[in-house]
Amino acid sequence: MSAMPGCPACEADYTYEDGAMFVCPMCAHEWPRDGEQTSVEEEKSVRDANGNVIRDGDTITVIKDLRVKGSSLVVKVGTRVKNIRLVDGDHDIDCKIDGIGAMKLKSEFVKKA
Question: What range(s) does the Protein YjdM C-terminal domain occupy (predicted)?
Fold first, then answer.
């Protein structure tokens, strides 16, 4: 019987196989059995309303009127936003909109320009 590899994240010895993956029950880290490590950036992909992959620095277009919380301002349909930055969280796009300022947007309300 072959020995199971230790967890690369927390270095625990209590790993087990689950299909084509190794799993650590201590920290819930999963990695492929073939030894290739996939980076977190490759696993995470943000998609717009049409299913296109959005990356840092892209230009996007708003597809729905969005009211700014705590203000009477509205981001209108068709507003183009340049040089976006992707962040973790519910609102996964961080950007600066002319006339409004810094905002966080959800990817489901934008499309790639």
Answer: 46-113
